[in-house]
Amino acid sequence: MTEQNTTSFTRVDEDITGAVAVGRVIAGLDQATVYGMPGGYTVHIFDALRDLKADVNVHLVRQESVGSVMAEASGRLTGVPSVVMGQGQWILGNAGIGIMEAHLGASPMLVLLDATDGGPSSHLGPYQASLGGYGAVDLPAAMRAITKETFVANDATQALQMTQLAIKHATSGEPGPVAVIFRRDSLFGRVQVESQPPSYLHGSYGTPRSDVVSPSQIEAAVKTLGSARKPIVLAGNGVRLGHAEAALLSFARTLDIPVVTTPAGKGTFPEDHALALGVIGSFGHNHANRSLGESDVIVAVGTKLGATDLADFHPDLISATRQRLIHIDVEPRNIGWTVPATNAIVGDAELSLVTLGAQAAGFSGGGRTRVEEARARNRSSRAESATGDFSARDAVLIMNELLPAKTVVTCDAGENRLFVLSDYVVKEGGTVLQPNGGGGMGYAIPSATAAAMVRPDSLAVATCGDGGFGMSFHALLTAVELGVDMIVVVFDNRILGWVYHGQRGRVIASEFPSTDYSAIAAAAGCTTYSARTPAEFHTALTEALAITGVRVIVSSVSNEDRYQDVMADLHTVDGYSVPQQ
């Protein structure tokens, strides 16, 4: 293995197997981390990593889905791709939840898997065949459906170079998951010193961030912003991906502009700040929706402005006929995709906000006064649960009271996520992660596990219903075995809440039997608590905050609070329910 020359790159100067070459590429990653289970021919890549343990963190997970969700959350929080690795069929069959979430939510990820092909007999339908054709699974086609790009490596040189290219693709433009499928010969064969095309083990195969954004784009946006009477900032998940939270806060403070977020952008701006208006959309805060609708200039940062964000394009939220849009995104294709943009700024969120803020210095949007007026006119959330019984919403309000500012709260899909979206207040230094792309259950616990590992100075808290918890026992075991410090809050209402309340009394396949989740968590090695009242939950969370390890609070909550209770006023048609009888 050769060292990088200061003026040129040195070619591979020894014959190494494709598996060893891939291992060395992984070791060259910043914060190199692998989540997975050895299987198939990837055993040989894992074997190569055994000699590189000083440079790579390799974490065994209990199931491939745990690894893919951990990698997705890690990529979203750090901007650095982690590796998900394992046997091809089981990466496809089990790990799809995290890969699909990364693809739809734009989190960088490297997916390394094998074809488990049978070499010369691969066309004759051997055991676990996965390269397509009669009697085989078409693994490349399946992976292309849920990734940004998928490569198939046929020889050792391709194994090396396609892994390097996968890193480049995963981090260039809009991030995402990129897969490399290794055929047997690509890992067992050798990278030849004189091979063509030439191979280099060292050097960056990524795309560097531009140090400038287009001056003409900034100049045009400054002109639009300068004429605004009621400007507003709409922040999406791209602010988080671009590590632009501090830049967004400075931009809003300097220009005195209010900030709203998409559901996926919740946590990119402190919600207890004087310029914060909360979350927009079908399940957003009424005063956030109304303030967005009343604005004349919208600075949209790191958001695709999709139908789910804009309540199916409700005309009272955004309308190109009465508002002007300054759209900032690292991916040009996202700008003006769904709403015509008056001004486009192509660039990463941090640099764009810093540059635009500096050029617009002296402008004031009257934000603090407008936020005070908006909050006075409209409620943002209920002060207590709909029934007065102990509910998930009561527990969220207690979390507001007790959790430290630097907390990463992760959510599952379902009603529990909506209650966090509506009632949890993110403070400066904290954030919220939810499955904003695929919206799958079983996300909260593995994502909180990853958050605990990549943000050790923050507290990780997973919130999930009993349905999602039942899908996450293997993730809970992984969290215990990795020795992370995190709290899991289980809202046990004995139903699939969103389904149950959408069935309008015509209940089928949405109720669970009573289960002792505390006993299960204790058997897994967790410290457990049970809560049946707000007071008991307050005590349990207080005690959990005083210790370390994996702590699980099983909260027996009412099933009377419904997702309909947190629908925004503009969400007048409940498309999630069965038709009225």
Provide structural commentary:
The chain is of the alpha/beta class and 581 residues long. It folds into 3 domains: 16-191, Thiamin diphosphate (ThDP)-binding fold, Pyr/PP domains (Rossmann fold, 3-Layer(aba) Sandwich), CATH 3.40.50.970; 215-377, Rossmann fold; 392-566, 3-Layer(aba) Sandwich (Rossmann fold), CATH 3.40.50. Helices cover 36% and strands 17% of the residues. The protein is built from 22 helices and 20 strands. Strands 3-2-4-5-7-6 form a 6-stranded parallel β-sheet, sandwiched between helices. It has a 6-stranded parallel β-sheet with strand order 11-10-9-12-13-14, with helices on both faces. α1 packs parallel to α7 (156-171) and α11 (245-255) packs parallel to α13 (349-359). The longest helix is centred in the first third of the chain and has 16 residues, at 156-171. The radius of gyration is 25 Å and the shape is globular. Residues 1-7 and 380-384 have low confidence and may be disordered.
Strand tally = 20
Strand arrangement, largest sheet?
3-2-4-5-7-6
Radius of gyration: 25 Å
The H-level CATH homologous superfamily of the largest domain, spelled out, is Thiamin diphosphate (ThDP)-binding fold, Pyr/PP domains
Main beta-sheet strand count, sense and barrel state: 6 strands, parallel
Helix percentage: 25-40%
The number of helices is 22
CATH class of the largest domain: Alpha Beta
Number of domains as seen in the coordinates: 3
**Model regions low in confidence, pLDDT < 50 over at least 5 residues:** 1-7, 380-384
Taking the alpha carbons of the first and last residues, their distance comes to: 71 Å
The SS-based structural class is alpha/beta
Name of the CATH architecture of the largest domain? 3-Layer(aba) Sandwich
pLDDT average, as an integer? 92
CATH-defined topology of the largest domain: Rossmann fold
Residue share in β-strands: 15-25%
Overall, the morphology is globular
